[in-house]
Amino acid sequence: MLAIALLTKSLVTNLGMLFGMAPEAADNLGFLAMIIAAFVMYFRMTKMRRK
Length: 51
Prior knowledge:
Blueprint: H1 2-18, H2 23-50
């Protein structure tokens, strides 16, 4: 789960800078994407455990 979150942050940050965003804004967007990816992975893991 941690690896997915960090890879998502890196990917979104790099894509943001590639498309011309400021580095600070791209980093903030990457952090937001990392949080969302972590929540999605957590809910998927707990959903599989319940069944």
